[in-house]
Automatic annotation (TrEMBL):
Keywords on record: Membrane, Transferase, Transmembrane, Transmembrane helix
Name of the protein this chain belongs to: Glycosyl transferase
A molecular function (GO) term: transferase activity
Superkingdom of the organism of origin: Bacteria
InterPro entries: DUF8094 (IPR058407)
DUF8094 domain residues: 312-609
Pfam family name, one: DUF8094
Compositional bias annotation for Low complexity: 292-309
Biological source species: Microbacterium protaetiae
Organism classification: Bacteria, Bacillati, Actinomycetota, Actinomycetes, Micrococcales
Membrane-spanning segments: 12-35, 188-209, 266-288
Region (Disordered): 291-314
Length: 617
């Protein structure tokens, strides 16, 4: 009996030892795992301060510096007054800075950040660097402004850079830094925490078994009294209780056991909750070993490897911003009848037509303003894929009118150089039911040269050929090359000429005067961007003229019913006659050589009066 008790005691002791060992080891493992995720994980960000090399007004942070560490970049710049920052393609920003000096922030051969002062390219000795306010330039993909301090999160590829300045004249902010999030993986934190939690559960299990074994291994007990019959009276029950107490028998009734059970349940629940909490604290992806290698990221639809092709001139969001600026400036110019203000955003035929309209509105109270340009609603953006200048972008914008109809406007905008704003060079109402297929905005399109032989007609010849069709109709040598059956502009011109001639002959009766019509190519160069079907969308201008002359020496041409001509010439009649010129802006789809649809199709147009002159003798 003694040896059996000793073996039971030793077995009980071993169980408690294993339980304690499991508790201690579990605590060490869990503490180690938690420490990896907290105390030993290190800083979560890394910041690099950028020094200025001088008092230059601009600082250019190269894309290699921004991507020196992986992850998003946070730019911080501080200075007295307004702080400006913008980002764009590195080549574009360097072109914008080519005539001035700036701080160039790059990486040296050891991948350390360095700053050097770069002077104007090809500057003559003694020339001062150019200074201009960078805010509002169309070249930026996006820009930010803040007073005193600017903090902006970015996520730019190494092909883009950031320009930091104040107002373009004062020195660039000297307090400048870039911050990256530091990703520190702790691959064994998860296994340690979960393994420690499991070991703690094992320790709890062993401890419970030990407690149970200890209770079962106690010495012999007196046999408990049988249960009393139900008919016992309260006095008998009380006497029995006293008797049991005198005999040293402990009652095994429910009231004595209930508190003990509650204590054991609470003891078991606490470790389980603790273990669960600790286990979940390590369940993140970077807290576990990665055995499959790093996954290769998939490019999104807006980030496409274009290979050796040149980047598009603008992005869709950039085009939205440029269109809004053009529309706002032209609206202000229309309100003030300010041709100089209009010239900051218009060029070519659109500017010439606006100038004429301003003159007429100053002289004729009932003269209406030209149609306002849409400020939003872009549904097509086709930028030229070109790193140099000038650059061209085709845009189509939808605008809802008061009668709930939707009008689509075709536009060509161009940028002459890195410092110039984009200007509207062609515009017209979209008349075609559909446009040819064009490349997406993130790829862009190549510009087609005016003398290109890859189209059924070179862009440089289209205006003159179409003008001949306007004058001669089906008898024109170029008529077969145009889709005249579905051309609303040709039909409108023919109807208008017929009505004007009939009205003129009511007074002249072909005896005292003549009215002749003619069309010719305008002075504006054509603009053309390639489509996906080897064709091109081409914008050209055509000038239509109406010349009224007297047919005998005694006759004169009066302007009684033509206030426009009177306002533009300053006279009411002429013995030599008048020539009225209209400006037509025309958009065509020109197929490529070998296309099954070889006819040139009109896509849209606009037509406005350009000027009136007295016929010279």
């Amino acid at each position: 009996m003694g040896s059996a008790c000793r073996r039971a005691g030793e077995d009980l002791f071993v169980r408690f030892v294993w339980a304690v060992a499991a508790f201690v080891l579990a605590a060490v493992m869990i503490a180690s795992g938690v420490a990896q995720r907290t105390l030993f994980q290190g800083p979560k960000i890394e910041t690099t301060a950028i020094e200025s090399a001088g008092s230059a007004s601009y600082t250019l942070i190269d894309g290699a510096v921004l991507n020196r560490l992986p992850g998003a970049q946070t730019l911080r710049a501080a200075a007295d007054g307004t702080v400006f920052a913008a980002y764009g393609r590195t080549a574009d920003l360097k072109a914008w800075l080519s005539d001035t000096e700036y701080n160039a922030v790059t990486l040296d051969k050891d991948s350390q950040v360095q700053t050097e002062l770069v002077g104007p390219a090809d500057a003559a000795e003694g020339d001062d660097p150019q200074h201009r306010d960078p805010a509002g330039a169309d070249l930026w993909l996006d820009e930010f402004q803040q007073d005193d301090i600017l903090i902006e999160p970015l996520q730019l590829p190494d092909t883009m850079s950031v320009l930091v300045a104040t107002n373009g004249t004062d020195p660039a902010p000297a307090d400048l830094s870039v911050t990256w999030p530091v990703h520190r993986s702790t691959p064994w934190a998860g296994p340690l925490i979960v393994g420690g939690s499991i070991l703690m559960l094992v320790g709890v299990f062993l401890y419970i078994l030990g407690i149970r074994r200890m209770r079962r291994s106690r010495g012999p007990r007196r046999k408990a009294l049988p249960p009393l019959p139900d008919a016992q009276t309260e006095d008998q029950t009380a006497d029995l209780s006293v008797e049991q107490a005198d005999k040293g028998v402990i009652s095994a009734g429910e009231p004595a056991k209930a508190p003990a059970r509650r204590r054991r349940r609470a003891f078991v629940a606490i470790p389980v909750v603790l273990v669960g909490t600790l286990a979940f604290s390590g369940c993140t992806a970077d807290a576990w070993p990665q055995f499959g290698g790093s996954p290769t990221p998939t490019p999104t639809e807006t980030v496409v490897d274009t290979g050796d092709t040149q980047p598009p001139a603008v992005t869709t969001s950039q085009a939205d911003r440029i269109l809004a600026r053009i529309s706002k400036t032209v609206a202000q110019a229309d309100e003030k009848k300010d041709a100089k203000l209009a010239a900051t955003r218009l060029a070519g035929a659109p500017l010439a037509e606006r100038k004429t309209n301003y003159t007429l509105r100053k002289e004729i109270s009932k003269e209406a303003a030209l149609s306002a340009l849409p400020a939003s609603g872009l549904k097509v953006v086709l930028p030229q894929a070109y790193e140099g200048w000038p650059r061209t972008v085709l845009m189509v914008a939808d605008e809802k009118k008061d009668d709930d109809t939707v009008e689509s406007t075709l536009m060509m905008i161009s940028q002459a150089d890195p410092w110039s704003p984009y200007k509207l060079t062609y515009t017209g109402r979209l008349e075609a039911s559909s446009l040819p297929d064009v490349a997406p905005a993130y790829l862009g399109a190549t510009a087609v040269q005016p003398d290109s032989s890859f189209l059924v007609m070179p862009p440089a010849d289209i205006a003159a050929a179409y003008a001949d069709v306007i004058d001669k109709g089906d008898k024109s040598a170029s008529a077969a090359q145009f889709d005249t059956d579905e051309d609303p502009f040709l039909k409108g011109v023919a109807t208008k000429r017929k009505e004007q001639l009939a009205e003129f002959n009511k007074t002249a009766k072909k005896k005292t005067g003549s009215l002749k019509f003619a069309a010719a190519a305008g002075s504006e160069p054509p603009l053309a961007l390639a489509t996906l079907e080897s064709g091109a969308i081409v914008a050209v201008s055509v000038h239509e003229t109406e010349t009224a002359k007297p047919t005998n020496d005694d006759a004169v041409i009066k302007l009684d019913n033509n206030p426009r001509a009177e306002a533009l010439t300053g006279v009411k009649e002429s013995q030599t006659g008048f020539t009225t010129t209209y400006s037509d802006q025309l958009f065509f789809y020109v197929p490529g050589v070998g296309s099954t649809d070889a006819q040139i199709r009109l896509l849209g147009y606009s037509s406005n009066i350009l000027g009136v002159k007295v016929v010279s003798k």
